[in-house]
Write a structure and sequence with these properties.
four-stranded mixed sheet, five-stranded mixed sheet, 50% helix, Thioredoxin-like_sf
């Protein structure tokens, strides 16, 4: 690592972290826009929130601008189109169950003919404002709930009795849209994951006329979904196991590991396994995003020295030199040294200092590079669009998800496991009672 980076990164990161993280006021000149695709399942979930959002927007942001694209962006993380669509459907199903969105039990991608019909309906309708948003929601329901007859009927009426409208708040184009998002003040907000962040921003700027109530079952950081002692004991007795696939140069890996270790692992008796990945160039990250996530999760983060490829190999070398039963604590200390103390582990003095703290007298003779490549292959098989990748195993079931945005799924899965367990027990008790009565 260059001397400039080793010395300048900790200074720069400390300055960046301590400056005000939120700009006081974002411009309302361009209003609030939402980008959708009719064949994007996240857009379907988003459409179910838009009438309520429009209803509480101040006049300064009305009307909500709706941009409907017919073009998808390239799938992330080298995923094929089929892999990406399959991931989105599964993820949307989880989101819909958690937050009570309307969703089909066996969703399918809409057919091209249905998409053209839906686009014609939306282009031709004279409805505006909230009325248009209700129509938009209905059309999405028809596409994703397999209501083909309703869609054809509405299409026949729209094509026969109306012609294409030209409203400035309703735009159809081919802007690449991977998944639906909002745009406000030249900033983008994921339409589902960042919806609460967006409404907090709008509320701060007094751009909402009422309290926003979205994603009602959202689990806040450092708050537990399961707190009843009996339920907690039942989860702990199931010995849940969690695999973490982390890129060592990615600060989100540190934030995620620290949060899980500090807040969830001991609380739920989760057995952790860590699989460090080879260098993926994720040291070129969004500093403001990492800073914001650090403050919301309550995990320390600065001063740091971003690891380069050489440093990540040294970090992995140290990790695999530690006895297996001590590796979780060791990785916590390694990442803490990098992301909270500004240590450069490609620098001999910093490496030796941490080596002493870990009480390592000798280093592994194992081929660490091959081990990282093996972890890469295992991670790739999970077909996830982002890092870190998590696999949770409990009660004979396996659940795979990714990123800090989905950590809430751990507790949600635990809650669902308990619910299914209680249902099974009730059914068994009812059957036993019926047999005794006979």
């Amino acid at each position: 690592m260059s001397l400039l980076r080793r010395w300048f990164d900790p200074i720069r990161s400390g300055w960046f972290y301590n400056k005000p993280s939120r700009q006081a006021v974002l411009s309302t000149e361009q209003g609030l826009s939402v980008y959708l695709r009719l064949d994007d399942v996240y857009s379907y979930l988003t459409a179910q929130q838009l009438p309520q959002l429009e209803d509480i927007l101040s006049d300064e942001l009305k009307p909500l601008k709706v941009i409907i694209s017919n073009r998808s962006a390239e799938a992330p993380n080298h995923m094929s189109e089929a892999e990406w669509q399959n991931y989105c459907l599964n993820d949307a199903k989880i989101l819909s169950k958690q937050h009570r969105f309307s969703f089909h039990e066996t969703p399918e991608q809409p057919k091209p003919e249905a998409l053209l019909q839906a686009e014609t309906i939306l282009k031709n309708t004279p409805l505006r404002g909230q009325d248009f948003l209700y129509l938009l929601e209905d059309v999405f329901h028809m596409l994703w709930q397999k209501q083909h007859g309703k869609l054809r009927t509405l299409y026949a009426m729209a094509s026969k009795h109306h012609r294409a409208q030209n409203f400035e708040e309703r735009i159809f184009n081919d802007t690449p849209v991977l998944a639906s998002y909002f745009e406000f003040g030249e900033r983008k907000y994921h339409a589902v994951d960042d919806l609460l962040r967006l409404t907090r921003r709008l509320r701060q700027q007094k751009l909402l006329t009422d309290n926003p109530i979205f994603l009602i079952n959202h689990i806040e950081w450092r708050e537990h979904l399961i707190s009843d002692a009996e339920e907690l004991n039942e989860i702990q007795a199931l010995d849940p196991e969690l695999d973490l696939y982390i890129a060592l140069e990615d600060p989100i890996s540190w934030l995620l590991l620290a949060y899980i270790k500090e807040e969830l692992a001991d609380f739920y008796n989760i057995h952790l396994n860590i699989y460090p990945l080879s260098y993926h160039g994720r040291d070129l990250f969004d500093w403001s995003l990492a800073t914001r996530l650090s403050k919301r999760t309550g995990v320390s983060f600065t001063p740091f020295c971003r690891p380069d490829q050489q440093a990540t190999v040294q970090m992995a070398n140290m990790y695999y030199s530690v006895p297996e039963e001590q590796r979780i604590d060791a990785m916590y200390k390694i990442l803490h040294a990098v992301w909270c103390k500004g240590k450069d582990l490609s620098f001999k003095a910093h490496f030796q200092q941490l080596q002493q703290e870990l009480e390592l007298t000798t280093l592994t003779t194992e081929d660490v590079t091959s081990k990282l490549s093996e972890n890469d292959m295992l991670c790739e098989m999970k077909s996830q669009p982002d890092f870190p990748v998590l696999e949770l195993r409990i009660d004979g079931q396996s659940y795979v998800f990714n990123s800090l945005y989905r950590v809430w799924m751990i507790e949600s899965i635990f809650s669902n496991v308990l619910e299914e367990k209680y249902k099974s027990e009730n059914i068994a008790e009812n059957e036993l009672r019926k047999n005794e009565e006979r």
